[in-house]
Design a protein that fits this description.
Elements: H1 2-23, H2 29-44, H3 52-94, H4 98-114, H5 119-137, H6 151-169, H7 173-179, H8 185-196, E1 198-212, E2 218-231, E3 238-240, E4 243-251, E5 254-260
Antiparallel strand pairs: 1-2, 2-3, 2-4, 4-5
Helix pairs in contact: 1-2, 1-3, 2-3, 3-4, 4-5, 6-7
């Protein structure tokens, strides 16, 4: 009879042990309550029987197991809360929500002040939020409007090109320098020598294309022309159809030729 009782107590102990081992690995409030309920059941087996020592050991370990479960449950809840805070921060950041970012920064700063495993991560988020808020609070950059080319600019440019051809027809290299101040000396000498060999030049513009840069400070003019010139030692004039490319720039409101190709 006594052997049967011992066997029954052993089976009960094994069952309680199995429940204990399962419950101690969980991380929820229900597990803590069930572990607490196991303690008196282990204690009931502590009566000097064969299982007394083992039952007593489990009964004494219940409090520690509950503490472990509580620790994991608190960590799980804290991790979930932290991730929820991170999600709110990311949403506020994506929407450039200043108030949302400020609130998130305060929550992260509280975590930093309290210390713990998430303090370092929270500090990193605080730094990110500070940069984001600094960018959002910074005054917008001053955008300087680029000068826009006007009809008046194009008229002035065409006039300068027309003067170039006028002075060219006059065979006057010094006058050419008025519209082309940076004319290279070799180019000046070349014009002077060429003009000295002809008695008459006429140029007719048959096509002209003006392109002004977006900032209104540079321009390119491509001209198709018909040119006639009469050499001094010949009576018969020669005809050409040269193409001209003028590079111009605007300085202090005035246009001038920089190069002629």
């Amino acid at each position: 009879m006594e052997a049967q009782i011992d066997q029954a107590e052993l089976g009960q102990l094994k069952q309680l042990q199995s429940q204990f081992e399962q419950l101690r690995t969980r991380d929820d409030e229900a597990a803590m309550q069930q572990l607490k309920a196991l303690q008196p059941q282990f204690q009931a087996l502590v009566d000097g029987g064969p299982q007394s020592s083992e039952a007593s050991s489990y009964a004494n370990n219940v409090s520690g197991a509950i503490a472990d479960v509580r620790s994991r449950a608190e960590k799980k809840a804290a991790d979930a809360a932290f991730q929820q805070l991170v999600q709110k921060y990311r949403q506020a950041s994506a929407n450039n929500d200043k108030s949302g970012l400020t609130a998130a920064r305060g929550d992260f700063q509280a975590i930093v002040q309290n210390g713990g495993a998430r303090a370092d991560s929270a500090q990193q988020y605080v730094a990110e939020i500070n940069k984001k808020l600094d960018a959002l609070n910074a005054p917008p950059p001053v955008v300087k409007e680029a000068p826009v080319a006007t009809v008046a600019d194009e008229t002035l440019i065409r006039g300068i090109v027309q003067k170039f051809f006028q002075y060219f027809e006059q065979r006057n290299p010094d006058a050419l320098r008025q519209v082309w101040p940076s004319m290279p000396p070799k180019r000046y000498d070349g014009y002077r020598n060429a003009f000295g060999n002809v008695s008459w030049i006429t140029i007719k513009i048959i096509g002209e294309n003006v392109k002004i840069s977006p900032d209104g400070t540079n321009a390119t003019v491509v001209v198709q022309s018909e040119e006639q010139e009469t050499p001094k030692r010949e009576k018969r004039s020669r005809k050409f159809t040269p193409s001209w490319t003028f590079q111009l720039s605007k300085t202090n409101g005035n246009w001038q030729i920089n190069d002629v190709l």
